[in-house]
């Protein structure tokens, strides 16, 4: 392994999130290879099939191919009479991955320079309790050396179940480096164990040798320091847990690690939904959890048992551009010789909404999702009803959940023109590059749309629009900075605008974020970039919001609370299980479940919303109430008594 190749590998993890592939065994089984076969030997006898599976992952967007060699060690291969073929089988595993990459580059000449890495898979020595440490070490070294010599970019020690197994892997690397005089990059990936879990995967039929994840990591790190063992360039967690369960393990260990983390959950067990057991790990479900892993700081994401190319395709298309946006920052051009940064128009003079923010007046707004068609008449009629109630503003989302709706700019302009109400336009970074987004900001100024909430946005989803791509040239922090620059009469390139814009600039904050430290840090970055107000994600636990307020009040900008009145128990269940960034406490679910009739559930949802407003109103600048399914009657019952 050359120094430059190692540097390229490390750089990939620093620059962006790296997309790993999914399961190999699952795909072999889908192709009619049954469990009485030696899956590792198929590298030789069915190399065409192994290459085909690798190709499927590459086409899906994988940047790391894991060789089909998880059990290609002498101890396991002896069961099939192949103990003398360790080198042959492992070398063939690497060649199959190399062939798949070469053919991928031929099919996709525009991606010829795309970095793609080969991870030489080394699985655990399950059932090898009878072996001495020296015997186990020799078996492991034989496989690692074969993979290294065949050209694997790094070794992936997978599904390690305890600290001793992980240290054995490091001893193997140390011994090879000493005897061969080479440097072998490697990843140590452990199979997480959470309290109460029953062992069932990857041959781990006994849980007695497994350790809770946090305990394992602490023990391992202590031993490594004491024994001065080689360090991996990344850690990993794979197998045993589905995406939702794996999230708990990631939350426990991510703060303990000082190196990048790769997460590869399996499909997981079916979930009980009333009288049915449903496998929840659809490509979209898998992707939503991949986004949560990345939010916690994970640097590599892929899948294990049960996760196939369709999952990797959805995940790669969604999280890759989003992750790049979070790493990228806009570069402000130097001012032209004739350009001058003007003073922004005072907040109170930009819009009625801005005036209320400046004066500290209580604000009420309602979120209405634009229609799928182009008939805005029903939307305008709802806004007129809300105007009669005394609502200040209408919030217009921008393609929520990456769905296709009428242009939110068109919807906002029509509402303002025909009702006289101001709108708060949600402005998403997903669909256009920087030039297109700046053009839209000028368009909003021309239409008199002054209040803008910048959001990074949801990545496109697999399903209705499988060919849609996400742009994400920047994120909400970058767009906030661009808008503030335009408010001072200069565009991103440093050129003077004929007129300065007068936008009231808002951002989002999620009190339910998994990584609150990151969320708070990003919030203050948004304020530093020029945010003048913020709207929270829907909050069902008022205490969570109040604790968040304790941490962000020093920013000094008005915060508007997001309120979502639950329309039914089913609506609450959907919000709890399917909508990222929303946490519905069990106590709320219990209250909704008490009622059999839908109208009683709706009344309970309204009561919960009103209780939340009552509890938080003294700390907030106002509220944004979402209209579930566009139901204005629910909104009016929630707002009764809270409009000033």
Overview of the molecule:
The chain is α/β, with parallel strands linked by helices. The protein folds into 2 domains: 3-327, Homocysteine-binding-like domain (TIM Barrel, Alpha-Beta Barrel), CATH 3.20.20; 347-639, TIM Barrel, CATH 3.20.20.220. The chain has an 8-stranded parallel β-sheet. An 8-stranded parallel β-barrel has the order 11-12-13-14-15-16-17-18, surrounded by 7 helices. It has a two-stranded antiparallel ribbon with strand order 8-9. Strand 8 and strand 9 (276-278) form a beta hairpin. Helix 4 (47-60) packs parallel to helix 12 and helix 10 (243-253) packs parallel to helix 11 (283-295). The relative contact order is 0.08. Residues 196-208 have low confidence and may be disordered.
Quantity of strands, as a count: 18
Radius of gyration: 27 Å
Number of helical runs?
24
CATH superfamily of the largest domain: Homocysteine-binding-like domain
- Specify the CATH architecture of the largest domain: Alpha-Beta Barrel
**What would the average pLDDT be, to the nearest integer?**
88
Question: What is the general shape?
Answer: elongated
CATH topology of the largest domain: TIM Barrel
Major pleated sheet: 8 strands, parallel
Structural category: alpha/beta
CATH class of the largest domain: Alpha Beta
Query: Spatial order of the strands in the main sheet?
Result: 1-10-7-6-5-4-3-2
Estimate the helix proportion, in percent.
Answer: 40-55%
Which runs of at least 5 residues are low in confidence (pLDDT < 50)?
Answer: 196-208
| C-alpha termini separation | 69 Å
């Amino acid at each position: 392994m050359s120094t430059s190749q190692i540097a390229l590998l490390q750089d990939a993890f620093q620059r962006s999130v790296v997309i790993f592939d999914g399961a190999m065994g699952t795909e072999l089984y889908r192709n009619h290879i049954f469990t009485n076969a030696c899956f590792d030997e198929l590298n030789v006898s069915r190399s065409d099939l192994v290459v085909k599976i690798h190709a499927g992952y590459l086409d899906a967007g994988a940047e790391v191919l894991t060789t089909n060699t998880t059990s290609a060690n002498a101890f396991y291969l002896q069961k099939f009479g192949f103990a003398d073929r360790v080198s042959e089988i492992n070398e063939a595993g690497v060649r199959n991955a190399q062939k798949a990459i070469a053919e991928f580059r031929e099919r996709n000449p525009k991606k010829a320079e795309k970095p793609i890495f080969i991870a030489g898979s080394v699985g655990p020595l399950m059932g090898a309790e009878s072996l001495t440490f020296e015997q186990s070490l020799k078996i492991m070294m034989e496989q690692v050396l074969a993979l290294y010599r065949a050209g694997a970019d790094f070794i992936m020690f997978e599904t390690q179940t305890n600290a001793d197994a992980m240290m054995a892997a490091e001893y193997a690397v140390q011994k090879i480096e000493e005897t061969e005089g080479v440097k072998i990059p490697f990843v140590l990936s452990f199979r997480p164990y959470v309290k109460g879990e029953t062992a069932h995967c990857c041959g781990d039929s006994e849980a007695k040798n497994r350790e809770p994840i946090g305990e394992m990591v602490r023990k391992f790190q202590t031993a490594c320091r004491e024994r001065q063992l080689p360090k991996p360039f990344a850690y990993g967690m794979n197998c045993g847990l589905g995406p939702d369960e794996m999230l708990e393990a990631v939350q426990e260990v991510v703060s303990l690690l000082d190196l990048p983390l790769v997460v590869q959950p399996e499909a997981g067990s079916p979930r009980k939904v009333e009288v049915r057991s449903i496998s929840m790990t659809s490509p979209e479900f898998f992707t939503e959890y991949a986004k949560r892993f990345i939010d916690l700081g994970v640097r590599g994401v892929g899948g294990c048992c049960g996760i196939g190319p369709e999952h990797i395709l959805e995940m790669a298309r969604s999280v890759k551009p989003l992750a790049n946006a979070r790493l990228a920052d806009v570069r402000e051009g130097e001012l032209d010789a004739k350009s001058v940064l003007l003073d922004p128009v005072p907040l109170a003079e930009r819009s009625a909404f801005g005036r209320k923010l400046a004066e500290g007046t209580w604000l009420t707004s309602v979120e209405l999702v634009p229609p799928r068609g182009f008939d805005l008449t029903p939307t305008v009629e709802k806004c007129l009803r809300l105007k009669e109630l005394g609502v200040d503003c209408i919030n217009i989302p921008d393609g929520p959940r990456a769905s296709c709706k009428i242009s939110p700019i068109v919807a906002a302009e029509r509402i303002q023109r025909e009702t006289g109400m101001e709108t708060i336009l949600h402005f998403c970074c997903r669909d256009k590059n920087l030039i297109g987004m700046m053009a839209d900001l000028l368009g909003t100024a021309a239409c008199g749309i002054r209040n803008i909430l910048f959001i990074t946005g949801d990545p496109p989803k697999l399903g209705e629009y499988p060919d849609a791509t996400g742009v994400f040239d920047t994120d909400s922090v970058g767009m906030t900075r661009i808008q503030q620059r335009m408010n001072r009469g200069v565009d991103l390139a440093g050129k003077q605008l004929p007129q300065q814009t007068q936008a009231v600039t808002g951002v989002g904050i999620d009190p339910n974020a998994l990584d609150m430290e990151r969320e708070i840090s990003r919030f203050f970055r948004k304020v530093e970039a020029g945010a003048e107000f913020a709207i929270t994600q829907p909050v069902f636990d008022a205490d969570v919001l109040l604790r968040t307020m304790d941490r962000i009040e020093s920013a000094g900008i008005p915060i508007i609370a997001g309120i979502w009145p639950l329309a039914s128990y089913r609506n609450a269940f959907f919000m709890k299980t399917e909508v990222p960034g929303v946490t519905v406490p069990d106590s709320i679910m219990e209250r909704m479940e008490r009622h059999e009739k839908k109208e009683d559930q709706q009344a309970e949802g309204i009561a919960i919303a009103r209780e939340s407003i009552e509890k938080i109103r003294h700390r907030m600048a106002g509220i944004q109430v979402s209209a579930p399914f566009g139901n204005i009657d629910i909104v009016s019952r929630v707002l009764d008594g809270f409009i000033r």
